[in-house]
Design brief:
- It is a single chain.
- The chain has 2 domains: 187 residues, Alpha-Beta Complex (inorganic pyrophosphatase (n-terminal core)), CATH 3.90.1640.10; 106 residues, Diaminopimelate Epimerase, Chain A, domain 1 (Roll), CATH 3.10.310.
- 38% of the residues lie in helices and 18% in strands.
- It is built from 11 helices and 12 strands.
- Strand 9, helix 9 and strand 10 form a beta-alpha-beta unit.
- The chain binds manganese (II) ion (MN).
């Protein structure tokens, strides 16, 4: 008897909670519905979106296996440049992703089952597959917590514009099925935040964008936090002291707002003009509905090309 080994994996740089949770949940589903020996493994490391709170749940990833004949399923990635390094294309049997752009590419591989859809989170898709299979017993409390965390992270607390109604339905049903209270959501974000805050300076510096977009200052930082309770303004100012002009987009998930801190000559006027909004003072502009940095840069580019 040689049982088929299936390895569920994701991207090569790091795995976020959406990839981490969906890999584990899909493993549990396939274990239930197929005869294959299914494992979920990665050569990459989980990032800050997978805090100890999540790693301590009863489900986790498997160790890597060395099996020449195994088949691969890829979740949360469809750009072949970013596949986990253990994967070779001839061994892929399925790809499920929500980053669009490679649908045409995979259409010429008839042996690979693909599902690439515009949706907030891959965890939503896996939740739907579990419901369709009828095996709701898979969705115990810890499994629900995993999938909820993936949805919350990738949709920014369901407030990002990429959030679909399917994500909202999955989120609400998972809360009920797993008997998970909304407190868990806050706990989850706080746990991620305390990981980031441990090395606040590094977190900002490693993520700085230095790129000219319209009237925006050339140096733009971003941090996504629950609220400003743990945000260190002094450290922020220290980081940006080296730059003649800068801005920092702080996305507040509880309020659903962007706090844009800035510095440099004329930046205030340029931002007020771009957003058609008065600043609170000489260092802060508040957007009533948050925008991600990439959306702000897009807006600035569009405005300057008009
Ligand atoms: Mn994702």
């Amino acid at each position: 008897m040689n049982m088929q080994n299936i390895v569920i994996t994701s991207g090569c740089k790091y795995v976020d909670i959406d990839a981490y949770a969906s890999m584990i949940a899909y493993r549990e589903l396939l274990k239930t519905t197929s005869d294959a020996n299914v494992i979920a493994s990665t050569t990459a490391t989980p990032n800050q979106s997978v805090p100890p709170l999540i790693l301590d749940l009863k489900y986790s990833l498997d160790d890597l296996t060395k099996d020449e004949n195994c088949k691969y399923i890829l979740l949360d990635v469809s750009n072949p440049d970013f596949f986990d390094t253990q994967v070779t294309v001839d061994k892929i049997v399925e790809i499920i992703d929500h980053h669009t752009g490679f649908e045409q590419h995979w259409a010429s591989y008839p042996n690979i089952k693909t599902q690439i859809e515009f949706i907030g989170s891959i965890c939503t898709l896996i939740y739907e597959k579990i419901i369709e299979s009828g095996h709701t017993e898979i969705l115990d409390t810890d499994m629900c917590k995993l999938l909820i965390a993936g949805i919350l992270d990738n949709t920014l607390n369901l407030k990002s514009s990429i959030t679909t109604d399917r994500d909202r339905v999955a989120y609400n049903e998972l809360l009920k099925l797993g008997n998970v209270s909304e407190d868990f959501c806050k706990e989850y974000f706080s746990a991620c935040e305390s990981g980031v805050m441990k090395d606040f300076e590094k977190a900002i510096r490693d993520d700085l964008k230095v790129e000219k977009a319209g009237v925006l200052p050339e140096v733009i930082g971003q941090m996504i936090v629950l609220n400003l309770d743990n945000f260190d303004h002094e450290k922020m100012n220290k980081i940006f002291a080296d730059y003649p002009e800068w801005m920092m987009n702080v996305v507040l998930l509880e309020e659903g707002k962007s706090y844009i801190y800035f510095g440099g000559d004329g930046v205030k006027q340029r931002l007020e003009h771009l957003f058609d909004k008065r600043c609170e003072n000489d260092e802060l502009l508040i957007l009533d509905k948050f925008l991600l940095r990439k959306q702000i840069m897009e807006k600035a580019r569009e405005a300057s090309s008009m």
